[in-house]
Amino acid sequence: DDITARRKDAHLDLCSTGDVEPSGNSTLLECVKLVHCAMPEMSVEDVDLSTAFLGKRLRYPLLVTGMTGGTERAGAVNRDLALLAERHGLAFGVGSQRAMSEDASRAASFQVRQVAPTVALLGNIGMFQAIGLGVDGTRRLVDGIGADGLALHLNAGQELTQPEGDRDFQGGYRVVELLVKAFGDRLLVKETGCGIGPDVARRLVDLGVRNIDVSGLGGTSWVRVEQLRASGVQAQLGAEFSAWGIPTAAALASVRRAVGPDVHLVASGGLRTGLDAAKVLALGANLAGMALPLFRAQQAGGLEAAEAALEVILASLRQALVLTGSRSCAELRQRPRVVTGELKDWLAAL
Ligand code: FNR
User: Fold this and answer.
1) How many CB atoms lie within 10 A of CB 182?
2) What's the pLDDT at 5?
3) Helix (H) / strand (E) containing 287
4) What confidence tens digit (pLDDT) does each residue in 269-291 have?
5) What are phi and psi of 289, to 5 degrees?
6) Which residue ranges have their beta carbon within 6 Å of ligand 1?
7) DSSP of 225-269, one letter per residue?
8) What is the reported pLDDT for 1?
9) pTM assigned to the model
10) Residue among 192, 229, 290 whose CB has most ligand 1 atoms within 8 A, to mutate
11) CA-CA distance, 11 to 136, in Å (whole number)?
């Protein structure tokens, strides 16, 4: 309904210019140092980062994670960023399709196949909307935009900060079980900036989940976004919990250790540079995910600005591979790296 759409545009306003990345928060990627190779013995041209995702071939192991849809402004974001993903060989996700499930006339803002006919495309729905929609309703959302898979998002921290948010989080694993049966390895389970830890990841994998986006702490904070919209008690809770979550580097490294090499892991949450992406790929991510930096560039200067921002990220990622003497992600993972400070503490506890 209109309330969902209005909330979406308020979220976009806050994310495009608001203080949605609390300054004390960290991915802990600064605790990861890749080691310089003075004699790379390769050309930048030799870097091959291509990888498989959702049955498709990507040129770069990057995912533009789900952000938006439901309004005209959101539609422009989706089309610009999906076009970029198509052009550069990245994967792309639309934002929550709740608005589309409530009002079919909002579907157009999620349609990106005209500009991105071959992109690896993820639909998106929240855990609790998925309970309401059931498998058939969820499948209609995915098929309705020609997506290759579904991202199921978890956001308990955001819900508890939202005055109108959910308060009862029972029944989640049951929904995952049903969706795994329906979507198989086309299902991805993601957080939204508070991180998925090893215990949850192991349970998801035991239910058959093959793709997890840990989406950790250190970037966009949805608790902070809701804090900025709230007043009274909810605003106080939001302020207090804006730093709540598992830092992205800690979530990724601990989940990789817990689930073994075969589960497809996306690392997102606070990645801002190609070097950040290289670090998560070295730590065992199959894909690096980004939302806010590309969204902000698009809001500031449209497709052209978003493409300029992306080109810096891609050049930096290639440079990190050359300077570690790595032709591929597999080689990068085998290179030495230094892990310092707080990240070591997290990994000792998780
Ligand atoms: C998001 N994110 C998000 N996630 C999701 O699963 N469904 C959604 O509808 C949205 N909406 C949304 C809107 C905007 C404007 C942003 C910036 C983000 C969360 C996103 O996919 C990601 O998990 C986090 O934002 C962390 O990554 P960054 O932003 O720190 O790179």
Assistant:
1) 15
2) 80
3) strand 287-290
4) 999 999 999 999 999 999 999 99
5) -115, 145
6) 11-12, 15, 65-68, 95-96, 124, 151, 153, 190, 192-193, 215, 219-220, 268-271, 290-292, 295
7) HHHHH--HHHHHHHHHHTT-S-BHHHHHHHHHHHH-TTSEEEE-S
8) 63
9) 0.98
10) 192
11) 28
